[in-house]
């Protein structure tokens, strides 16, 4: 406590660095140097003494050593087995290399996908939506829109004081109220109007909307302001799309809204009205675009809709950015290597290569990866151009002009969608490498096993689901919002099929038809069809199907992996079948025949063939003299053993 925080932190940092350096570096180097010195000393020639063996012990060992009586001939070389083992080694090395390349590319894809994502982006979007879009959904008339602009939007965009009443500086007022995002340029308004044609509109003392004179091919509206200072950056075209910007000051912006209200900027000829506001959060380095659309429906009220988009316009500036650039280059090189291997496989095998579904998945992943790289380059170019426009619009008192960030936001969203599809396909492609496993092969073969049942089930399910969609839309379309159109009805019924439903809304809309529709749907779809689908899947899993997979490759890879770790397992004789097992049987029979021949040779050496006809031995004493004179033959006949080895036929090998 006497040292203070900074000196304490410095002492702790120095202590940890010294302690870790001493343990990890200094002492390790000392042990290593000491070991090298001792090894060099004890390996000197004059210190190395040969082992002394007494001469008597050496002679005794030589006399006691016996040579084998017979040297067996070496076993015949199994050329087919050696060739097959060589092919398995080559195939396993190729499979391992392909797996490493795919795994590295997928890992880099995951990094690229997470690089631009920020965990606080969701909270930033929620904060802007709550502050900017407060009570925006309640707008139904032009007067409510003008009131919302005056009471909600302008105080949020032009705060005057902090939460404690302290006055804000001019640059501080560029930040939205109670947020860390400041405005980039003024608020941009865009209105799309109906084509004037022969329509006429009464003007208010020469102000408001009027038909701009011109040729018949380009007749458009023109909005005349009461004062030139209140209509900055007004523009219109022949498509009757009119845009203008809010003034940057709070007072002039309030006068501008009053002018729009007094001279009926929104009238019966307005089709849609949009408000665009750009923000930037320097802490998160995120751009935000708040896009609000107000459509004038045919029922006479305004229908508001808003969307907040967050994205990042990055450039390679900091050390982390250059690290990302290096990883992007490595990923591109990996993509080129994988692409070269696939092209080589296509050239070697021809069009037969595409008959395998996994090869088609591999090529589809390559196409998605190439598309992702192209979209990334385009996104980077658009981001650079947009940042240049933003930099040019920056003045001494903030950003003076509105910059359209819609294109940059669209390309960013496009890149994220394409990247998501690419990550998914490349991750699924990893199963292409491990498909030789029996369990994985059977799992991947499930769609082929149950394809007939699944097709029949899909036909029945589509017909039944379409019937419920049509009836639900017709019955509840005018009563429940989730059934207001076919898309919403399909989405609501799909949620009901998954177990999420709102029965009270159906009951309130129609106390008779609602329960009948709900009960029928739950019985037919949720209970019967879903259980039929689960039964089909369970039967396919339990079915004993011969799955085509390279089991020998899997066993070889597993044995090689165990051998690398020092684990050795005895050979499994049950795994051998066919010709290798027949060859092993023939080798065992040959060894048996050689052993029998050796035994017969020993018999011939002990009892020659000419003395084997009559060999008498003396028996033990018996009770009678006659029994003492009896003799019995020991070996009376000659034994001959012959083993015939015949190759097995196809039918025998199958049995």
Question: What does it look like?
Answer:
It is found in: Membrane. Keywords: Glycoprotein, Membrane, Transmembrane, Transmembrane helix. There is one protein chain. This protein has 655 residues and is an alpha+beta fold. Mean pLDDT is 76; it is low at 614-639 and 647-655. It has helices at residues 5-42, 55-64, 79-115, 121-132, 142-157, 250-262, 319-349, 357-392, 406-428, 438-444, 446-449, 451-476, 486-497, 503-509, 513-542, 551-565, 579-606, 625-628, 650-654, and strands at residues 182-183, 188-193, 208-212, 220-224, 241-245, 270-281, 286-296, 302-311, 394-395, 398-399. The chain is extended and about 135 Å long. It folds into 5 domains: 1-40; 91-116 and 318-433; 121-311, no CATH class; 446-542, Helix Hairpins (Orthogonal Bundle), CATH 1.10.287; 579-654, no CATH class.
Distance, first to last CA: 88 Å
Runs in which pLDDT lies below 50 for 5 or more consecutive residues are: 614-639, 647-655
Estimated structural class: alpha+beta
Shape: extended
Strand content: 5-15%
Indicate the topology.
Layout: H1 5-42, H2 55-64, H3 79-115, H4 121-132, H5 142-157, E1 182-183, E2 188-193, E3 208-212, E4 220-224, E5 241-245, H6 250-262, E6 270-281, E7 286-296, E8 302-311, H7 319-349, H8 357-392, E9 394-395, E10 398-399, H9 406-428, H10 438-444, H11 446-449, H12 451-476, H13 486-497, H14 503-509, H15 513-542, H16 551-565, H17 579-606, H18 625-628, H19 650-654
Antiparallel strand pairs: 1-6, 2-5, 2-6, 3-4, 6-7, 7-8, 9-10
Helix pairs in contact: 3-7, 3-9, 3-16, 5-6, 7-8, 8-9, 12-13, 12-15, 14-15
Domain Polycystin cation channel PKD1/PKD2: 319-540
Transmembrane segments: 15-48, 93-113, 322-340, 360-377, 454-474, 515-537
InterPro entries: PKD1_2_channel, PKD_2, Polycystin, Polycystin_dom
């Amino acid at each position: 406590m006497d040292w203070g925080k900074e000196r304490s932190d410095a002492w702790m940092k120095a202590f940890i660095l010294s302690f870790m350096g001493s343990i990890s570096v200094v002492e390790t180097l000392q042990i290593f140097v000491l070991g090298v010195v001792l090894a060099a000393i004890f390996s000197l020639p004059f210190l190395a003494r040969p082992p002394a063996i007494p001469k008597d012990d050496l002679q005794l060992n030589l006399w006691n050593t016996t040579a084998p009586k017979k040297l067996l001939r070496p076993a015949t070389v199994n050329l087919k087995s050696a060739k097959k083992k060589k092919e398995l080694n080559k195939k396993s090395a190729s499979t391992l290399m392909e797996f490493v390349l795919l795994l590295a590319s997928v890992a880099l894809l995951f990094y690229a996908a997470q690089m631009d994502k920020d965990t606080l982006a969701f909270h930033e979007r929620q904060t802007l939506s709550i502050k900017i879009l407060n009570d925006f959904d309640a707008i139904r008339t032009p007067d409510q829109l003008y009131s919302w602009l005056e009471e909600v939007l302008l105080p949020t965009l032009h705060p005057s004081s902090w939460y404690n009443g302290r006055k804000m500086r001019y640059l501080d007022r560029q930040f939205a109220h109670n947020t860390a995002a400041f405005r980039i340029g003024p608020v941009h308004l865009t209105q799309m109007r109906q084509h004037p044609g022969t329509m006429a509109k009464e003007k208010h003392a020469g102000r408001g909307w009027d038909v701009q004179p011109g040729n018949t091919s380009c007749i458009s509206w023109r909005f005349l302001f009461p004062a030139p200072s209140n209509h900055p950056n007004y523009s219109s075209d022949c498509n009757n799309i009119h845009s203008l910007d809010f003034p940057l000051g709070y007072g002039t912006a309030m006068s501008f809204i009053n002018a729009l209200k007094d001279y009926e900027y929104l009238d019966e000829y307005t089709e849609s009205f949009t408000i665009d506001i750009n923000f930037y959060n320097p802490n998160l380095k995120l751009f935000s675009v708040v896009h609000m659309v107000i459509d004038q429906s045919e029922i006479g009220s305004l229908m508001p809709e808003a969307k907040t988009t967050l994205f990042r316009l990055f450039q390679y500036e900091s050390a982390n950015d250059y690290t990302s650039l290096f990883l992007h280059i490595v990923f591109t090189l990996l993509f080129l290597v994988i692409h070269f291997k696939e092209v080589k496989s296509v050239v070697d095998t021809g069009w037969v290569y595409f008959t395998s579904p996994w090869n088609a998945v591999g090529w589809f992943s390559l196409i998605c990866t190439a598309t992702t790289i192209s979209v990334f380059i385009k996104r980077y170019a658009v981001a650079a151009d947009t940042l240049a426009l933003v930099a040019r619009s920056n003045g001494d008192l903030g950003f003076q002009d509105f910059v359209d960030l819609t294109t940059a936001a669209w390309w960013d969203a496009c890149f994220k969608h394409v990247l998501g599809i690419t990550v998914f396909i490349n991750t699924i492609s990893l199963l292409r490498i491990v498909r030789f496993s029996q369990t994985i092969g059977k799992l991947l073969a499930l769609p082929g096993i149950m394809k007939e049942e699944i097709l029949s089930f899909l036909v029945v399910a589509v017909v039944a689901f379409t019937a419920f969609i049509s009836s639900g839309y017709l019955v509840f379309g005018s009563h429940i919002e989730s059934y207001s159109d076919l898309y919403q009805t399909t989405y609501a019924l799909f949620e009901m099929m998954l177990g999420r439903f709102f029965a009270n809304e159906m009951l309130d809309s129609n106390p008779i038809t609602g329960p009948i529709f709900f009960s029928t749907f739950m019985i037919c779809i949720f209970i019967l069809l879903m259980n039929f689908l689960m039964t089909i899947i369970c039967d396919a899993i339990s079915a004993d199907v011969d799955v085509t997979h390279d089991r020998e490759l899997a066993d070889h890879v597993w044995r090689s992996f165990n051998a690398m770790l020092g684990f050795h397992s005895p050979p499994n004789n049950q795994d051998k079948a066919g010709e290798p097992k027949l060859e092993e049987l023939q080798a065992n029979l040959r060894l048996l025949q050689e052993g029998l021949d050796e035994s017969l040779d020993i018999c011939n050496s002990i009892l020659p063939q000419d003395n084997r006809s009559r060999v008498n031995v003396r028996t033990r004493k018996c009770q009678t003299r006659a029994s003492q004179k009896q003799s019995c033959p020991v070996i009376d006949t000659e034994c001959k053993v012959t083993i015939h080895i015949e190759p097995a036929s196809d039918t025998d090998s199958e049995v």
